[in-house]
Design brief:
By secondary structure, the chain is an alpha/beta fold. The chain contains 11 helices and 9 strands. It has a 9-stranded mixed beta sheet with strand order 1-2-3-5-4-6-7-8-9, with helices on both faces. α6 crosses α7. The structure holds beta-D-galactopyranuronic acid.
């Protein structure tokens, strides 16, 4: 007998079948009453919160606005690490609610020579915890702390498993235990919401951490972590900038474009990432009241850097670029306007502009030294 492997949920990689997404993207600047949004105050006072709520209810889940308390405990404070280049702090950020607690362990390096608090990159680490160990036993492009310190920035990370284990059977065992109402509701947050919530609690800590310029924290994530970094920036306007690296479906790529990973595929493989309501859109992206250009727009006017990799068609590089391009009208309500070219740049030709930056790196789905080098140029442009 000959078995022919036929994936039950097939993906499209044929550009001619990607669809006419422009006709189906929900409008950014028309509100639910049909009123056209003409300026930033109309955006900020009405349309922005409508869109945020659509993402909460239909995709990522609500995020608790209150909780009992949060505490910060510095466990390790070591100047002169990295051959004298950096100051290391390891801190436990503990959140208390509903008689329960959950702890997010934060590793932070800041430049030893810094005379004042420094702008800092915060990575939501969804890969091996080894990438972000304080010991620096493994030096990887995923979190190149030495490179970032040499550029004069702070670099911090926490691991997603502290917030919500990345597993459909155990994701509740992190901070979701503190919020049983979230788990009970169809629009309550799950793992990706919990990762973004944790990033905000780390920012609470940074507000008290003298070495970090908490007004200039850049939230960074790769792939599933990049879905969370965008959601964190949308939810918490204290983040100054956002990097979403190869974040693909339900990250920076358009969902209504039929290319690469689909909503049904992601919800089937990772039922613990998005809220229960999101499953209604399996095989029916057309019914989604939002698309991902609207998520990027929620960051406005704060700068966003999105990336792709040429061998990572699963994450739909073209659909990611088009989401950035279609987010522009909101950024353009503010003084510094975005004028991305209509079509994506060639591989390895970053467009580093303020407020929207993009590159498509040659190679595989990953976060690399090359990517970080561009993020540093992006941050320099904005902060220096
Ligand atoms: C894949 C998933 C993607 C992306 C990726 C990752 O399996 O389909 O959406 O999140 O994992 O996180 O590396």
């Amino acid at each position: 007998i000959l078995f022919v492997f036929q994936p039950a949920l097939a993906q499209n990689y044929d550009e001619s079948k990607a669809g006419t997404y422009t006709y189906t993207l929900p409008p950014l600047l028309v509100d639910s009453n049909g009123k056209t949004i003409k300026n930033k105050s109309q955006w900020e006072t009405s349309r922005r919160s409508e869109i945020l709520q659509l993402f909460e209810d239909n995709v990522y889940g609500t995020m608790p606005k209150t909780f009992d308390s949060v505490s910060f405990k510095v466990l390790n404070d070591q100047p002169g690490v990295m051959q004298g280049a950096a100051h290391l702090k390891e801190t436990d950020v503990t959140i208390y609610n509903n008689g329960q607690q959950a702890t997010i362990h934060v590793v932070l390096f800041t430049p030893q020579q810094a005379k004042k608090a420094v702008p800092t990159f915060l990575l939501i680490n969804n890969r091996s915890p080894k990438n972000t160990l304080a010991s620096r036993d493994t030096i990887m492009g995923f979190w190149p702390a030495e490179q970032v310190i040499a550029a004069g920035y702070g670099i911090a990370a926490f691991h997603v498993s502290d917030a919500a284990p990345d597993d459909k059977n155990t994701y509740q065992n992190g901070l979701l235990r503190l919020f049983p109402n979230e788990l009970a509701r169809d629009n309550g947050m799950k793992a990706i919401g919990a990762w973004a919530f944790a990033a905000s609690r780390v920012l609470d800590y940074f507000e008290k951490e003298e070495t970090v310029d908490h007004k200039n924290v850049i939230v960074v994530g790769h792939s599933r972590g990049g879905k969370a970094s965008l959601w964190a920036a949308a939810q918490d306007q204290r983040f100054a900038m956002c990097v979403t690296n190869c974040s693909g479906n339900t990250g920076a790529a358009l969902s209504k474009r039929n290319f690469g990973e689909t909503v049904e595929v992601i919800n089937t493989a990772f039922p613990h990432w998005f809220n229960t309501n999101y499953k209604k859109y399996n095989g029916n992206e057309a019914a989604l009241p939002v698309d991902q250009h609207m998520l990027i727009a929620l960051a406005a006017p704060r700068p966003v850097y999105a990336t792709n990799a040429t061998e990572d068609l699963w994450a739909d590089p073209t659909g990611t670029y088009l989401a950035m391009k279609n987010a522009e009208p909101v950024f353009n309500l503010y003084n510094r306007q975005s004028h991305l070219p209509a079509t994506p740049p060639k591989p390895d030709s970053p467009i580093i502009a303020w407020p929207l930056s993009y590159h498509n790196r040659t190679g595989i789905h990953d976060l690399t030294f090359y990517d970080w080098a561009q993020f540093i140029i992006f941050a320099d442009k904005y902060l220096k």
